[in-house]
């Protein structure tokens, strides 16, 4: 079905088709960044500019644009679905969700949630739009090449996915426990689907896509069975609102630590060229859902009114602790053996946690749990 998107370019000379393909994906990133910026709150020019800057400067985005990968178009699946869903255009919402089938393993939880929502609320037009888009694109590809399904089966059987060492949690588990254990590749998405069942059961009565779509995309991408670093642009659906929120509260020590983590991970992705499997730590290390620090959802935007934040420590100290942990865990990876190369990236989340504790953002309470207590409102976050 994906061939229907690419076949028209085959009518053009290669240089023209290559430039058009690049401009199409660049426009998709730009348009998606603008839409995401509007979702973070008031659409001020500064916020829109920051959203665009974050979208086009994300390391995996630049890698995808350089390699001509199709992953940036997947941004339009959740965003287009959300825009059509708000306008009650159920059929078009299903069509936009079908764009997630470009690489369904990256958005499998989002697609599963669309199916659950359509079945529970009996939105048949969503399903009809989804099925119709897949049937039409598959029909066009088959009409242009009647042997396309046979060729697809040949490619899958002669170049099986079990031979791919991808930077995913499943690939990481196979590398640690044995590459012959192919079932480990699908353990993270199986756990992701189990999580979705509990998550859906908890929120199904008041399900609002604006509040849940970013988390679904993040968990899908992090637990995907397969994927490459140039597939990560789809995470911008959640990363841009999160990073905008962190910039707005940049005087908060935790925000400084998380921004430093993001910058370090982005720099590493831009200026290193290791084997893909050694980037398995990348997706779980990216900052996510900072609204939990300040009581705001990253998609719904910041709460109304000023939010008191603790500034008991110097942000530069958090920056130093986080940067040291990130670089110790990453810069020397190519010089180490495989076990150490896989273990040291774990210092990134450990370093962030240490930074939050050292800066006084997280403190133990009487029960032994870590929490942040705002000194002005006495509210535990």
Summarize the structure.
The chain is mainly α. 61% of the residues lie in helices and 1% in strands.
Write the layout of secondary structure elements.
Layout: H1 3-6, H2 14-39, H3 45-57, H4 59-67, H5 76-86, H6 90-98, H7 108-120, H8 124-144, H9 148-158, H10 169-177, H11 187-203, H12 209-222, H13 236-248, H14 253-271, H15 282-285, H16 291-294, H17 315-330, H18 338-343, H19 347-358, E1 363-364, E2 370-371
Antiparallel strand pairs: 1-2
Helix pairs in contact: 2-3, 2-13, 3-13, 4-14, 5-6, 6-8, 7-8, 7-11, 7-12, 14-17, 14-19, 17-19
Walkthrough of the structure:
Helix content is 61%, strand content 1%. The protein contains 19 helices and two strands.
**What is the string of helix and strand elements?**
HHHHHHHHHHHHHHHHHHHEE
Shape: globular
- Helicity level, as a percent range? 55-70%
Number of strands: 2
Structural class: mainly alpha
Mean of the pLDDT scores? 77
- The order of strands across the largest sheet is 1-2
Pick out the low-confidence regions. 289-336, 364-381
Q: State which percent range the strand residues make up.
A: under 5%
Number of helices: 19
First and last CA, distance: 46 Å
The main β sheet shows up as: 2 strands, antiparallel
Radius of gyration: 22 Å
